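Homework help board

Subject: predicted structure for assignment chain

Our instructor gave us this sequence and asked us to write out the predicted structure in token form, then describe one feature. I got the tokens but I'm not sure how to describe them. Can anyone check?
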Amino acid sequence: MNKDNLLKSFDPNGIGLENGHFIGLPFEEEHAELIVFPVPWDVTVSYRAGTASGPENILQASTQLDLYDADFPDFWKKGIYFIKPDQQIKNKSVQARTLAEQHIKFLEEGGKTNSSQKHTELLDQINKACLSCKEFVYAETKALLKKGKKVVLCGGSHATPLGYLEALSEIHSEFGILQIDAHMDLREAYEEFTFSHASIMYNALKSPNISQLTQVGIRDYCDAEQDFSSKQSERITVFHDATIKRSLFTGTNFDSIVENIINTLPEKVYVSFDIDGLLPDLCPNTGTPVPGGLGFQEATYLLVKLKESGKTIIGADLNEVAGLGHKWDGNVGARILYKLLGLLSY
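My token output:
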């Protein structure tokens, strides 16, 4: 059945069909302009695991969404397809996570990797597994982009989009990243993991094609990250959550804060959305929750104003949504994912 016939036979006002598709939509990959690419991987998370099944949780929760979106009317008709999570990657994540937990416990007990042959080999295994995941993401997203698809990557931990960013860097000579997050993620090989979730932006900025990183909602970071950010102030702009809130407390309106955020970004923008950038009551079971953060309407207002600014959105990711069994987290995650898809559709 072609796309036109699918649209004619589909009832957008009906119940959410549990047909294995996002919001019960009827599209297959061949019909869809918008692709959700799930990466069930959470090997290096340092507080709570479980986000590897975050994409599945989001997919299950999506049947609770209504299709109408006042900000992006009828965009779903362009076709949305949620690729099935790769079972081999998921299995590798489970295996490598077991090793990572051993390594993290060893470090937390004061162990030194360079004094232990066992843990040197263990760390090498973990880093090789994470490299293989990055290479998988790079190859798969590159293939989707070559087909002309617009892609929202859905993790898993925030380590997952690095391969996608590398694929985009081969296409776009310059772009910026808008990062909504509680954390800077600028640590170098956090806990000795080269591809740590806490190192995603440190690793991403190795690409000279990423000309700007604008971070919003930041409220948990270390001295080294602050120093790294300060030394690259011409390339990194941070809107700390405390600064945003104090501006609001003293009479600055949120719209002007959003305008300042958007003005830091170049013409082409990639959006990286860590769910812990939101208030913890919206993501209570995420891997590393932090008090404070953006409300749902604040976050979506920023995304809508980004669209209205005329910037070209080249890609996006959503990460750190809690896994299966946490329905509320999945519900919120599905709604943020839908907004990101709408943003990317224009």
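Reply (TA_rk): Your tokens look well-formed. For the description, you could write something like this. The chain has a mean pLDDT of 96. That's the kind of observation they're looking for.
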